[in-house]
Amino acid sequence: MKKREIRKKRRRQRTKQQAQRKPKLHFPNEGIHIDKERVKKSFLLLLEIGAACLLAYSLVLFYGQRVSNAGDSMSPILKNGDVVLVDRLIYNAVKPKRGDIIVFKPAGNENAHYLIKRVAALPGETIQIKNGSIYIDGEEHTEGIYVSDLSSAGLAAEPVELGSNEYFVIGDNHEGSDDSRTADVGNVKRGDIFGKVWFVISPGDNFGRIRD
User: Fold this and answer.
1) Which of 22, 123, 172, 180 could serve as a FRET partner for 73 with CA atoms 20 to 30 Å apart?
2) pTM, whole model, 2 decimals?
3) If pLDDT is split at 50, 70 and 90, which confidence band does 96 have?
4) Any idea where the domains of the chain sit in the sequence?
5) CA 148 to CA 170: how far, in whole Å?
6) CATH homologous superfamily for 95-193?
C-alpha cells in the first residue's frame, strides 16, 4: 500500500516538474503608438491631391472643351479644321454680347455639328440687312460685327425682331456662311449656346487666344 502511494506521489512530482519546464508564452505589454503628426500630414496631402484633381477637372470641363471648326465661314479668324477651346462658364455670369464668337447647335438639333459664328444682334433688338449694311433698331451698325458689303440679306432682308432669349449670328466670311440669315440656322436661342470661343489650339497662324 505504501509503495503504491509512493509511486503516485512520484508521478505527481514528475508531472509538476514537466509542467514547470514548458516554456510560457510571453506577451509584452506594449501599447500601439500612433504618430498623429504623420497622420495629419498624410491627410492634408490627400486633401491637396484631391483639390488639384478637382481643379484640373473643372478647368477642362469649363475652359478646355474642344470643338472643331467646319468650313471657312469664320475666315480669317478661323480656318476649316481649326480646333478651338470653349469657355462654358462665362455665360453663367454674363450674357453674350455683340461681337462674341459663340458655339451653338443650330435650331437646338443635338445631332448637328456645332457651329461657330459671331453675335450680330441681341435679344429684343430688330435687325435688318439692306444696301449691304446691318441696321440695328433702324440705325446702321458696324461696331463689333466685322462684316460689310453684305450681298446676301437672306431672312434679314426684312426686319427680324429677336425674342427675349434670341441672338442673330453671322459668320465673318459672310459670303460663305450659313448663319441666322438662313432658315436652317435662324435665330439662336440662349439655351442652344454651348459657350464662347476663346483659344485656338491648332498649330498655325491662328494659334493662341482668339482675336475678337
Assistant:
1) 123
2) 0.71
3) very high
4) 95-193
5) 11
6) Umud Fragment, subunit A (2.10.109.10)
